[in-house]
Structure formats: structure tokens, C-alpha cells
Amino acid sequence: MADQLTVKVEPFGPDQAAHDRAVQGLVNRGALREHLGKSDYRLLSLELLEPTRKIASPRERGGYRATYYDYTENRAVHAEGSFGNIRGAKATVSARQPRPTSEEFEAAVKIVRRHKELGPQLRAGALTPYRPMPPLVETAQPDGRVERTVTVGLLPAGRRKTGHEIVGVNMIRRRVERYEGGAPATALANAGLCGVPLEANQATTEQGVAGQAWVSVYLGTTLLWQFLAVRPSASSGASGSGIELRYVDYRGKRVLYQAHVPILNVRYDGDKCGPYRDWQYQEGMIQAAGTNVAPGFLLCPKPAKTIIESGSDKGTFLGTAVYVDGQEVVLVSELEAGWYRYVSEWRLHANGTIRPRFGFDAVSSSCVVTERCCSPSNERRMPRSTQTQPWGREARDGIEHLWSPAGAISGNRSQHGTRRPPLDQADQQRLETQIAR
Fold first, then answer.
1. Where are the domains of the chain?
2. Are 382 and 372 in contact, with CB atoms under 8 Å apart?
3. Which CATH architecture has domain 12-94?
4. Three-point CA angle 204, 403, 363, nearest 5°
5. What is the distance between the alpha carbons of residues 248 and 112, in angstroms, rounded to a whole number?
6. Are strands 328-337 and 283-286 parallel, antiparallel or unpaired?
7. pLDDT per residue as tens digits for the range 190-232
8. pLDDT tens per residue, range 16-42
9. Coil, strand, or helix at residue 110?
10. pTM
């Protein structure tokens, strides 16, 4: 019998307790006490800082950048420092509008629940709130300032054909803003819906949770692969970069210094929605079972299932699943950005081949309606015949792309019934991938 692949996963880097101590200390006794001590504020992200130069072997990333939003002064407040020196952190303020968290979105929903017209419908279950795109509306006031406004999607329940709307919630004035046409200028909210049913409402992660691990892959007693894996919520970049691999060695030889997807742009035909710059740090639930071996890493005895394999937005695990599939070791995670769902996956073969894969899907949305998926007749589910067809695949730029068989999600977010993404069109969505050697 041939030797089998085995995988060993070991945690690396600061744990969640270190993250939490830094966050609490910054306001209680650190650099942000002066800026936020008497304000209404919320933590939005905690990003681990990259080393200033490449190094041959990894070190714990001890530096961080924390971002808060100060609702009292309508500003973003940032702090940079190291986990070992909270008092030494440096604070800055800006008018930038960072992306909202799940906690901030829920705070916005509470404000909608108090709205005279929409509140009773929400409380009665006639409307279901969801996270739409864009996540924020940045409309300048006469003095040039932008008041923080979080978007909330409202999906009608049952078979109602009217009432779908995307509203803005001004978090400074705590009031609901409604838009002509039922949605902000770069979005759609109408009776036509496509995508996996919006029914999960499960937890997601934010940017800045603990999640790095050493992964060692053996064939019998021979060490084949060794690398540092970073879960999406701890990945590098202001927008995250999916599952990130670092210091990748094959049979003792360095083959990659860093491998990730730092930029993800979304453009629709005719710009009917968007364009958007999506983020790749917000992890969604996948269907997986196994042993928790490091923060955000699950070692599984059988393949995990994402929305692409299961056709469902529900799952049992939040993070990166690791498993063996034949002669490959697989790392996979599912990401959320508004109504979009992305699958970040790496496959490393015993023969030295690396296969990156990137999947696309969505939950119920008007922006992803296509002729083959749904017509604008309030049909919420893709026809069963399309759900059971094999998903489309195409290799491009060294990455294997997956998309919906119904054409609901394609490489350029086509609004038309395209069976496979028109990847050769000049105006296609560009998925820019960086492999740093």
C-alpha cells in the first residue's frame, strides 16, 4: 500500500487573548484614551502589520493597526503600536470611512426597527434585514464632510413582490435615509432576485482575529510541504487577501515567499451595479467537522463543503478547513462581502504542484439576476436543474476560477444569461493576483 499524506498543524503568532488585551488597553490607558475616552465609539478592525522588509524565516507579527469609529466627532481614529507596548501606540484621526462590522450593521438595523413605516414590518417579520452592497453611502454634506451612513437591505418575506429596498442609516444622526428607486445609486433593489436563499444569518468574523498556523505535509516519514498559513481574517492588506500562504517550502526548498489575492474588483455589464472593491477577510460558515488545531483552523478527516458544493449559506465552522484529498492537501475558506460569497482555496500536490482556486456565488440579490437564473418575477431560488449541474471551471493566470452554472455569478458579474464568464472581454472584472517570490 502506498504511503498516505498526513498533515500536522501548529498555531503560530499572537493568540486572541493578546488581541483583546491590546484593544482594551488602547482606550483604557493607552494612546486612544484622550481621543475616545468620552466618545461614543466602536472598534472596526485590528490589522497585523507587515515587516518592513522580507525575512528568510517568519517572526511573530507583533505590530498592529487598530481602527475605531468615533460617532461623537464623526471621524475614524487609528492607533499603531506593538502588543508588548500598549502605552507606546501612536494615534491619528482621519475622515476616512472604514467598512462596517457585523456589530455596527446590527446597530443600524436597530435604528431601522424604530422607523415609523419600516419598523413595524421588521418587527412583524414581513421584512428581513441583510447586508447589501455597497456597505456604506458616502454623500458629502455642504461643508464637504461625510456623515457615516451604513446600508441595510430589506428583503420582503414570503412571496411578496414589492417592498425590497436598501436604505441608509445615518449613524451620527441615528436616522433612516431612503433613496429614489429603492436603493443607492450603485445598487439595485427590485422584485427580481437571484442567488442562494438568504436564510442563514450566521456569525461571521471581522478583521483582526487570531489565526496563523504552521502546516507540515508528510508522505510517510518524508516532509514534502511546510508553510505558514494565515486565515482570511488575519490576512494582510486593508481589504484582506483570502487564505494566505507564506514561507512555502517543498522538500526543503523555498518556492514561494508569499501567495495571496490582495485585490478583488467587481464590475457589472453596463455598470448596472457597482463597481465595487470587495474585501476578503470576512469569513462565513462552511460545512466541516474535525479537530480544532489552531485558532481558525480545523483539521478534517473528509472534504469540507462551501456554498459551491452544498448550495446552502449555512455551515458549522468558521475559519479555514484543512484536509487531504487523494495526493493533495487542501486549505479552504468561504468569504462574505455583502451579498457576495467567495471561496478561497489552495491545493498542494505531493508532486510539487500548487493549484490555487477561487469560487464565486451570492445570496439573494437583484444585482446578480440573469436570464437563465431568474427573471424579474420575484423567483428566489435558482431552478433545481441548474443547482445540480457541475460548476463551471476555467484556469486563468494560474488560478482555477469557479462560477455558478446558471450564470448568476460570473467573472464580470454579468447581468445576462452567460454560461461561462467572458474572460477575454476588455471590460471584464479584473481579479488581480499577486504571487510574491
1. 12-94, 102-182
2. no
3. Roll (3.10)
4. 40
5. 48
6. antiparallel
7. 878 888 887 667 889 998 888 999 999 999 999 999 999 999 9
8. 787 777 777 777 766 787 888 889 999
9. helix
10. 0.83
